[in-house]
Design a protein that fits this description.
Blueprint (H helix, E strand, L loop, with lengths): L1 E3 L11 E3 L2 E3 L15 E6 L5 E3 L2 E3 L3 E6 L5 E4 L2 E3 L3 E6 L7 E7 L2 E3 L8 E6 L1 E7 L2 E3 L4 E14 L2 E3 L4 E14 L2 E3 L8 E6 L5 E5 L2 E3 L14 E3 L5 E5 L2 E2 L5 E3 L9 E3 L33 E3 L3 E6 L2 E6 L6
Parallel strand pairs: 1-4, 2-5, 3-6, 4-7, 5-8, 6-9, 7-10, 8-11, 9-12, 10-13, 11-14, 12-15, 13-16, 14-16, 15-17, 16-18, 17-19, 18-20, 18-21, 19-22, 20-23, 21-24, 22-25, 26-27
Antiparallel strand pairs: 28-29, 29-30
């Protein structure tokens, strides 16, 4: 199904679709993937669309959004068993894939037979994914490339083969109130991988990471962060994760610590690896603030809260 106009001077505005089912299942039941880009729904030059309770399955791309398709919202979208579930891309350089919202939508099993992706956002700006789920992905649950201002909130991410979320060359991302879980023993996913995002910010707020059942065995791990060259500011607030999960920031590979900050290999300036921004001075060893293992500082001391309360080590100036 094609929606929209033929070019940037021939638009169709304000399309509304509800209760549609688009299915390309073959007689044998096999997924009919090809090397082409057949789409269940192709939206091009079609701003201000609204989809309600639309189901798309068994295409190379379930919903393909291109070129000056903006200010559009998808409610209860169900995209299942495609190579790509949803893919956005600006193929003619108009930079017009803006202000898309996905609300309570389910992206399930896309790419499982072909190494594809549930949701691929390319060249997108001001994209919101609120509620719903991104489940059983072939390669990646959510891949975002070349865009900015992405907001993901309250999404259930489950069991991709490699990555729950992959971010490449992106500005300003917030992922909040979401749950990342892995159920299958053959899957060793990274929760979040970032590349080439210099100078920009990721906010990872109030998220839960769990291994789930059937995990285990030699070499299995679940890295929350896999960060490569160019990654800049990361604000992590309210992270809830199992002790068997690695909060790892670095350059690939398995690490056996809950928090491993790899820094930059052979760098002469690794001063920004870890920052505790604000000082706090305990009032005494019996100060009730904080929990065992908390670390804080002021201009005179570093403080650690132990099982016997707060203890300190005096800071001494460096003499040349």
């Amino acid at each position: 199904m094609g929606l929209g106009g033929a070019n940037n001077s021939n638009w169709i505005i304000g399309i509304r679709i509800a209760g549609l089912q688009v299915d390309r299942t073959t007689a044998s039941g096999a997924f009919p993937y090809t090397s082409s880009t057949k789409a269940g729904i192709l939206a091009k030059y079609a701003p201000e669309m609204r989809f309600d309770e639309v189901w798309v399955q068994n295409y190379d791309i379930g919903v393909h959004i291109q070129n000056l398709t903006y200010s559009s919202n998808f409610f209860g979208l169900n995209v299942w068993a495609n190579h790509y579930g949803v893919k956005t891309e600006d193929v003619d350089g108009n930079a017009g894939i803006n202000s898309l919202g996905f609300f309570g939508s389910r992206f399930h099993g896309n790419g499982m037979a072909s190494g594809g992706t549930n949701v691929s956002i390319v060249d997108g700006r001001q994209i919101k994914i609120i509620g719903g789920s991104i489940e059983q992905s072939g390669d990646t649950g959510l891949e975002i490339t070349n865009g900015e201002d992405i907001f993901v909130d309250g999404v259930w991410f489950e069991s991709p083969l490699y990555y729950h979320v992959k971010i490449i060359n992106l500005n300003n991302v917030t992922i909040s109130n979401s749950r990342f879980i892995t159920w299958i023993s053959t899957s060793i996913p990274v929760v979040l991988e970032m590349k080439d995002t210099a100078g920009e910010t990721l906010n990872f707020i109030n998220n839960v990471v769990r291994e789930g059942r059937n995990k285990g065995g030699t070499g299995y791990y679940l890295a929350i962060f896999n960060l490569f060259s160019g990654t800049s500011k990361i604000n992590v607030i309210g992270l809830d994760y199992e002790s068997s999960v690695n909060v790892y920031t670095g350059y690939g590979g398995t690490k056996n610590a809950d928090l491993w900050i790899a820094g930059k290999a052979n760098s002469t300036n690794n001063v920004d690896q870890l920052v505790i921004s604000y000082p706090y001075t305990p009032t005494s060893q019996a100060d009730t603030n904080g929990m065992q293992g908390n670390i804080t500082w002021d201009d005179t001391n570093i403080y650690v809260k132990t099982s016997q309360g707060w203890k300190r080590a005096t800071l001494v100036g460096i003499s040349n």
